[in-house]
What we know:
With about 400 residues, the chain is α+β, with helices and mostly antiparallel strands.
Amino acid sequence: MATDEQRGTRGPAVVGERLHVLLERRASGAEGAALETFARLLLHRAQDYVATLADEEVAALVASAFRFYAAPGDELRARAIAPTYVTEGWDASVSVVETVMPDRPFIVDTVQAALEAEGVERRALLHPILAAERDLTGRLISLAPPNGSARRESFVHVAVPRTTDVAALAGLEQLIRDRLGDVRLVTDDFRAMLARAQEAAAELDGLARSGAGAGADASAAADFLHWLVDGSFVFLGYREYQVMTLGGTRVLLVRSGSGLGLLRRESRSAFSRPRPLAELPEAVRVRLLGDRLLTITKTIAESPVHRRAHMDDVGIRQLDATGHVIGERRFLGLFTSKAYAEEAAEIPLLRRVLRQILAAEQVVPGSHDHKEMVAIFNVLPKDDLFAATPAEIRADIEAVMAA
Length: 403
C-alpha cells in the first residue's frame, strides 16, 4: 500500500506535483500537453479509486489509458486487460475494461448493464468526456476539456475483479464492443425512428378520417404514438413488414431497407425471406390479422442498450382502402420513467380502454363505483394494461372490487 509521501497531494480535480513530474517523463510537447489534460479529466472524480496507489502506479495507469485512447484506429474501440508491470507499468489488483467512442447517450448505462449481465462486479468507473482533434487515420492531434462545439469523445475506464483468464477477458471485450455497436446503431438512427413514428401517426390520422371502419381505433393509436414520441419511449429499433401474394400464396416478409436501430440488420430476421401466413406462429398471426390495430408485447430478449429489461414491441397494422392488412410497422424500445409515472387513465390508448370499460359497466360518472374503478385501473401494472384486452382488464377490475 502506498504511503502518504508516495501518494503525493492529489485532490478531486488536481494532478499533484509529483504525478505531474512523472507524466512529464512519459511525454513532452503536444503529446505531453494532451497527456496532462487527459490525466486531469480522467482523475477528476477518481480520488477513492487511486487513494491506495503510489504516484508511480497512478502515472502508469494514466499513461496506459492514454496510449489506448490516443491510438489511431476505429472510432469505437474496447479492451479488457489484466495490467502488469511488464505490460502496463503497474501491477494492478484489478482487471480493467476501457472503451473509446464518439460521445452519445447510453454509453455508461450500457457498459454497466453488460457487466452486470455477466456477473462482473464494478469496483470503480471513470468516464471523462474529452474534446479531441484527430487526423484522418484517427491519430490524436490535440485534446481539451469538452467546451464549445468541438468533437466530443467518451472514454470509459472500469475496474473489475482481477482475472488473468485470457479467454474470459477476450469474451468480455467482445461483449462490450458489440453492445457499444448497438448503442451506435440506436443513437445514429434515433431521429429517423422518431420520424417513422410521426409518419405512422399521420397515416393513422388519415385512416381515422377516411371512415374505413377503424376510425376510433386509428385515432387512439395515433394519439398513443404522439405520446411515445413526446418522451415516453426510448426508441431502439424499427422495421416494416409487408403482406403480399406470391404464386397465389399470401406471405409476410421484411420491407427491404426499412430497418433502423437494433432492427437495421434485416438479414437476421425470420422474415428476411417470404413466409406463408398459414405457417406463421399463432401469436404472429393474431398480431397481424387480429382485430387490434395496435399491439404491445414484451420481447423475450433483454435490451442490449441502456438498461436490462425486456423490450416493448409496438406493432401497428397497415391497412389498404378496403381495410385489408397489407403490412405492419414495428417499433422496439423501452417505456421511460415518465411513462410509468403517468396515471394510466391519462395515457392515450389506455384512456380509451378505460372509457370502454366504464361504459360497459354502466357506472354513473362521479359515483363511488366510478371512482373506485378508475382508482383500480390506475394501480394495475401498466405493462399488463398495454398487453391485455379491454375484456381482460374489466375482469381484473371486477375481481378486485369483489374481493
